[in-house]
Fold this protein.
Amino acid sequence: FTGPQRALYDLVLASQQAAVEATRPGKRFIDPHDATVRVLAQGMLDLGLLNRNDVGHLDDVIEKRHYFRHYMHRTGHWLGLDVHDCGSYVEPTEVGRLSERRDPLSGELIKDRPSRILRPGMVLTIEPGLYVSPAPDVPKEFWNIGIRIEDDAVVTEDGCELITRGVPVDGDEIEALMRG
């Protein structure tokens, strides 16, 4: 890794770890995404990918979706017999109930049915990323770097198990593998 590549890689890995921690029975499908966004947005501020003077503090970045510039997709999707399985993202037991929230992709305030509750045996992807395009207000050393870490997770009785780990994901381990 170059220094900037490593900084972004470590940030994406930390965001994935936050998503993994949020993937457990009783949590909602949206919770891993929210955990990812919080870590990525703070990292974008810390690394200067977003200018605090322009975008404000962490809660402003999340509420106004300033992070979307470098992270424009959801953190995961259901996984089943098809790559993008078509299971509902809405909790079936709460069909008549509405909650108010910001849509993570459009940013609009919407009234929607609550996100699906995670239960043991459910399988989903956890795949955060960062994508930095050249722009005058972005430090040049980060230009044209894209990082995405993808794993598949099975919700267990007390958390989740990543079922796609067979390669190093820690930055030091990756660099050692590349050297050797």
Notes: The mean pLDDT is 90.
